[in-house]
Write a structure and sequence with these properties.
8 helices, 255 residues, two-stranded antiparallel ribbon, six-stranded antiparallel beta sheet, DNA-binding, Chorismate lyase, DNA binding (chains A, B), Arc Repressor Mutant, subunit A, DNA-binding (chains A, B), homodimer, 2 domains, alpha+beta
DNA sequence: AAGTGGTCTAGACCACTTA
DNA sequence: AAGTGGTCTAGACCACTTA
């Protein structure tokens, strides 16, 4: 490769890459970034296999050990999935992954199950300032997706999902939206949600919410605000979910 | 070392260790377990430095690379902390770590701050069945710690903490408890909390809770139930926290 | 049998901290 | 200057999957 370099040179090379001399970027992180760029650009599509470690090491001009450290980092971020004996694959938002990684509601007695959509509406509207800030909008329009979601046939979740209209052209042509909306982002808009930050509060149901959820006005609800970000760290989605948690709970692991 | 072994032998050796032939335990995981055992046993105390990688590799009879993989695993579980140029240390529950790892409440406007204890009561009582199950109690008694905790001088958190009486002898002699209770577990009872699972719900304040928190009866509160476990995976603490989230929220990262 | 990722080694050199 | 953890290499062999 033309950009092959030895370990000693990698330090200054990393510095010139950004134009800022911020100490030192190890070779394996440079390799990680190169591979991540290919995934972001779509050169390597979700679900497809990467070249073998031997081939990648040759392509990148590094040892297998260094290449593996780069793959280790991507795997720990769940950007890729490795299977001994089979190969390394770009991660995709299949039902299982989304269910466990991004859906944290479980029954008090029966564990987790996937929710089903009973109502879905997509509309274009001007962004509110909170949304504009969370999504770092260039324009001023968002898609507003409103869904009623049920567990065991009972509506327990009210979702309001806001995304940048300009990043999701003709989203309204995709109605009815698939149950797993992150799969839609990935397949039709080439945007992969990498992680999310959620803020939880307890609030009281207003009249409309009480009617939709079949509870009393003033009933305690769990409000979950989520900002979801893409592989490159840019915010993709702002979401507010209200959940009736009488027989369900939100599960969080602290490690 | 007398138990030095080469890579080829490690597979069958791992099998005989447990008496069950469950495939294969790599050498670095065996080394990881050995070091974890020393930390659990207190041979290596929280806050102290481990021997250098070179020395450890010699002691364990493995290469530095394998030794580092074991340390990597312990570091990713936050059991140890490494500092380039200084050394490797057994993690301890200092204020900072507990604040960020186990305290997830933050102000809507000003980020996180440590809570202060305004009231604390310790009592011994019979365990309820839910507690007995969560803590896998051998006996039937628990310590019940009740605390009122404030942020910016205002009581926002009501905590009920239950621990096995037999694992915390004479806990009531430690009153007043320190602000950081996991530091107490670690220093005086040699129990390190490694991780926790939390279950969140929205509930309505009853009369007593409303009085303590200075809100109306029926006001929505965030209930957080936590089961905290030790380094060896055994449950240590069952805790129920009620939080007034009008100007605060619970923060959760999904990766 | 061939190909994949996973483990392990021995050694070199680098970045960082402390004295 | 000496000691620490961090990076990188080249090569060997192992566990697992697929054909």
């Amino acid at each position: 490769m033309s950009d092959k370099t030895d370990a000693k040179a990698s330090s200054s090379k990393a510095g010139t890459g950004t134009g800022v001399e911020l100490g030192f970027t190890p070779l394996y992180l440079q390799v990680r970034q190169k591979m991540l760029d290919k995934i972001i650009a779509g050169t390597w599509q979700p679900g497809t296999a990467l070249p073998s470690e031997q081939q990648l090491a040759l392509q990148m001009g590094v040892s297998q050990g260094t290449l593996r450290k780069a793959l280790d980092a991507l795997a720990s971020d769940r950007v890729i999935v490795r299977h001994q004996g089979r190969g390394t694959f770009v991660a995709e938002h299949d039902q299982r992954r989304t269910l466990f990684q991004f859906f944290k509601i479980a029954s008090d007695s029966d564990g987790r199950m996937p929710p089903e959509t009973l109502f879905c509406q997509v509309a274009e509207r001007a962004a509110e300032s909170e949304e504009s800030q969370a999504l770092q909008l260039a324009g001023d329009k968002v898609w507003h997706i409103h869904r009623h979601r049920a567990l065991r046939g009972r509506v327990l979740l009210l979702e309001d999902i806001m995304v940048d209209r300009d990043r999701f052209p003709a989203l309204d042509d995709r109605v009815p939206l698939p149950n797993n909306i992150y799969e839609l982002y990935e397949r039709h808009f080439a945007i992969t949600v990498a992680h999310a930050r959620e803020r939880l509060k307890a609030i009281s149901a207003n009249e409309k919410q009480a009617e939709l959820l079949g509870c009393d006005v003033g009933h305690a609800l769990l409000q979950i605000e989520r900002t979801a970000t893409a592989l490159n760290g840019s915010p993709i989605e702002f979401r507010r979910t209200l959940c009736l948690t009488d027989h369900y709970h939100y599960s969080s692991d602290l490690r």
